[in-house]
Amino acid sequence: MRDDNLDTKTNFVPPHVGIIMDGNGRWARKRNQNRTQGHLEGLKTAKRIVKAASDMGIAYLTLYAFSTENWKRAAEEVGFIMGLVKRYLIEEMDFYRQNGIRIRHAGDFPGLPEDIGQEIQRAMEDTKDFKGLQVILALNYGGRDEIRRAVERLIRESALSGAAAPTVTEDAISQYLDNPDIPDPDLIIRTAGELRTSNFLLWEAAYSEYYISDILWPDWTEEDLRLAVLDFQKRERRFGGVIK
């Protein structure tokens, strides 16, 4: 039975939602189809959920599209995923414009194929002034790798400034993450019933609320996002403190 108690006032909708989009391969296997078909359906779902998040008033949506570990997959599958990402970036400009969606990236940018990097750069440049939902594509992304790169940048910048040694604090490291201006995720959704973090936003997710859905990513709908946010609204976030 539908629960219509979702409060979509700005203060009650999680400003930043991250999604670990899992289950494309299992979706295809259940239908005796190639894994590539699961990824294609997953891309369609991503567009559907981006629109739903925008309509709901979510400010930031980080989509875990391809991890640093995913390069271990078969070359054919990796190539297909990269091709889908490129196609999404190229063909959806009208969708971004109509919905005011800004595209951003998280991950090891130099490690991407050159053509993919060029399309990401183009999409970021073309949408940089849009004022609606900011979609962060976590592509060639790993949480440990992001922290490593942040520390490397901190050390390098300290050396360039002439400091004898870098001042390593949480705030200092945070300033060198991939998107330091984006607030930490309030809610992280994982689909397909898996219960692990999979190296996703390890630094930023220290106090995120997790929502686990048994539904495979290609089957996700706007209603599933609504239910996840509704569940979030019922949580008490203590950030290590005590609710009095």
Offer a concise description of the structure:
With 244 residues, the protein is an alpha/beta fold. The chain is built from eight helices and six strands; from the N terminus they run E-H-H-E-H-H-E-H-E-H-H-E-E-H. Helix 5 links the parallel strand 3 and strand 4.
Features:
alpha/beta, 14% strand, single chain
List the helices and strands and how they pair.
Elements: E1 16-20, H1 24-30, H2 35-56, E2 60-67, H3 75-91, H4 93-99, E3 102-106, H5 114-127, E4 134-141, H6 143-160, H7 170-174, E5 187-190, E6 209-212, H8 222-233
Parallel strand pairs: 1-2, 1-5, 2-4, 3-4, 5-6
Q: Please, could you describe this protein's structure?
A:
- The protein has 244 residues and is an alpha/beta fold.
- It contains 8 helices and 6 strands; from the N terminus they run E-H-H-E-H-H-E-H-E-H-H-E-E-H.
- It has helices at 24-30, 35-56, 75-91, 93-99, 114-127, 143-160, 170-174, 222-233; strands at 16-20, 60-67, 102-106, 134-141, 187-190, 209-212.
- A 6-stranded parallel β-sheet has the order 3-4-2-1-5-6, sandwiched between helices.
- Strand 3 (102-106), helix 5 (114-127) and strand 4 (134-141) form a beta-alpha-beta unit.
- The longest helix is centred in the N-terminal third of the chain and has 22 residues, at 35-56.
- The radius of gyration is 18 Å and the shape is globular.
- The mean pLDDT is 93.
